[in-house]
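Tokens help. Consider this.
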Amino acid sequence: MKDVQGNSGRDHWFRQLTPILLLLLLFVIVFEPAVETMVPGHAWFRQQFGDHFLLRFACGLLVFYVLVLWGECIRLNNGLTAVLKAMREALVKAGAVDSGMSARLDAIRMLVAAMQSDDLAIRAKSRANLVRLVGQDLGDDPLAWRNWLDQQPAQSPPS
């Protein structure tokens, strides 16, 4: 059964029990000598698993729980990424967002203007970034880049 936010009962209990489990593990680790004597059959466990069997168990449980939390983090990240991608695609379809093309063209315009700099390093970096943005190398001549820019379709501002 799912609650109002769409969470299953397992997720609800997982979130509720996490702090309790971690506090219990902290208690077991800190007070291990006293807690060990409360474990039924502690002599047998000590004989089978060594003197610090309870610490080993607590550390193993802690590592397992961290791995479960890591998996949950990945699951939530994938879900959120899918939702954001779907929202972005919906906005692009609705025309509210131009999928970054106008921002890219603005960057290209600034880089073409920087190609006229007297500083060789600025021209070289501008050319490298232009090649990365455009996908082709038009050389060191700013006029060639400007001609390429003029051939691109005009981007109308969103209404």
